[in-house]
Amino acid sequence: MTSAGETPDPLDRALDDPWAVWLGRRARTPLHLPDYRRAAVLVALTRERDPRVLLTVRSADLPTHRGQISFPGGSLEAAETPVQAALREAEEEVGLDPRTVHVLGELDDVFTPVGFHVTPVLARVPAEPRLTLTAEVAQIITPTLGELRGLDVIHETRTLPGGQQVPLYRFPWRGHDIWGMTARVLHDLLQHGP
């Protein structure tokens, strides 16, 4: 999106954005988990040749997931769509102005062992978005997709109650340990994206 007087960014046009093309060519895999709590996260990629992905380090003062790395996001409010929730949460957590976000669409649903059914929302944001820390966020990190692709990713398998095996990934990046649902979504982007 551009403001008055700015030169339009060619990546604002969905047909020129390789991520929009990729997303439009793939079949989305939804989940149907009625007993899980619905949530959404914003997978925000900067408008750059080697996009950076917006991640947060959760505050040590939070009651759950202290210090973990995550996408901005949270639970859906009543009658809220995943896109609306992802944009609201990103604004609440890091001050990302939703008017600067170009939503491309929804990625495959994922779940967490603690009972969340999460819809990741893929979007493009300015190369230098205006961000602010809130009490929920200790730090904002923005690794490039190229950096993440170059890492020696740790791959493990966990057996859930009931015997189902699920893949787990860990991205060790600059002293940070990116794992869990965040790592699963990143792994999908890096393995299957443009």
UniProtKB/TrEMBL annotation:
GO terms for molecular function: coenzyme A diphosphatase activity; metal ion binding. Residues 36-165 form the Nudix hydrolase domain. Pfam families: NUDIX. Its cofactor is Mn(2+); Mg(2+). The keyword Hydrolase applies. Gene3D superfamilies: Nucleoside Triphosphate Pyrophosphohydrolase. It comes from the Bacteria. SUPFAM superfamilies: Nudix. The keyword Zinc does not apply. Keywords: Hydrolase, Magnesium, Manganese, Metal-binding. PROSITE patterns: NUDIX, NUDIX_BOX. PANTHER family: MITOCHONDRIAL COENZYME A DIPHOSPHATASE NUDT8 (PTHR12992:SF11), NUDIX HYDROLASE (PTHR12992). This is NUDIX hydrolase. It comes from Deinococcus phoenicis.
